[in-house]
Structures are given as C-alpha cells and as structure tokens.
Amino acid sequence: MDGEVGRFSFNVYDIQKDDTIIKINPLFLPQKGKEFSKTSGFKELAYFYGACNSSYRLTAKQLNRIRYQENATSYRSLDYGVKQEAQAIILIC
After folding, report:
1. Is residue 14 classed as helix, strand or coil in its secondary structure?
2. Is 56 exposed, middle or buried (0-12, 13-18, 19+ CB in 10 A)?
3. Among 11, 44, 73, 85, which is most buried by a count of CB atoms within 10 Å?
4. Which tens digits make up the pLDDT trace of 31-56?
C-alpha cells in the first residue's frame, strides 16, 4: 500500500466461526509487477498537489523526501498513475 505516510505491507485474513484462518481475503485487487494500491491521501499529494503543479521527476523527489523513503516512488510510477486516474475519469463521464 502506498500512502501519504509511506509504503507499507499487511495481510488481511478471513476467519471462520471456529476461529481457524481460511484464506487471505482479497480486500484489495491484485496489482501487476511492483505496483501498489494507493490511498486517497497519496493520490492527493502525488497527483493533485504534485503532478498538476510540477514535473513528474520533481514530484517524485518531493514525495519520497516527505515520506522518508529514498527512491520508493519513481517518476514513471507517477506518470502511469496519473494516466490511470485520467482513464477512470473518462470512463465515468
């Protein structure tokens, strides 16, 4: 998960009545390659306040510095994310 406070991983489990763990619950859709799910706060920082106002490279540097994670988010990831958001908006309209 990519969030405004940084990148983190966690598991979500589905538990039966007899308290045995069945499987990992697919709460989040599977991602391709090294892609991560993004929180709304991350999208706001990266896409709205970042990529709309400056270049992808500068936005990636600022975002990684704010989150204290060196090279966590690349400018290519921002470019791809902005394009995904734009496609989602186009489909809604």
Report:
1. strand
2. buried
3. 73
4. 666 666 777 788 888 888 888 888 99
